[in-house]
Design a protein that fits this description.
Layout: H1 12-42, H2 48-75, H3 84-90, H4 103-130, H5 134-158, H6 178-187
Amino acid sequence: MKLRKTRHPLDKQSREKSVALLNDFLVLAIDLRLQVKQAHWNVRGPNFISLHELFDRLAGELEETVDELAERVTALGGRALGTASRIASKTDLGDLPKKATWGPELVALVADRYAAVAECAGMAIDRAQKADDEVTADLFIKTAHGLDRALWFLEATLESGPEPEPCCSEESCSVSEPDAVAEAMRSGT
């Protein structure tokens, strides 16, 4: 890709590598955002409202990520390539199944996609560092952090099991009578 003339201090070869890397990752980020929005629109089940809101929040965070990636491309003198046809031809993420609407199923499917994109973000960090572009590497680190956090939210949503034990039972609780505690504090014992 031919770069626009710029006063950017990074050498041309490093900028070319970073622009290609950023544009490749931009495809994944846009695709992930679209799939999360698809889950937001179509989720069903007992936890509908919390999942609907979670997916919308995650899609919004991805929108910010997409914008930062595209802006970095243009700051380096490149052209951000985020068209629908490019995404369709370049993405490695599989589409969400059209019939997937049940909350836990959608959460698991979206979590799988986040994990895949997070793995790519880790590789992008290394590639940006090898291109001597620490600012782009930092952007990928920030992106990886956001993906990891979202993956944590999704995985925590999927967890199920027995209710946690209370911190103390009436028999073992050290505060048996509030008045007795207040009296002990006054008397210094």
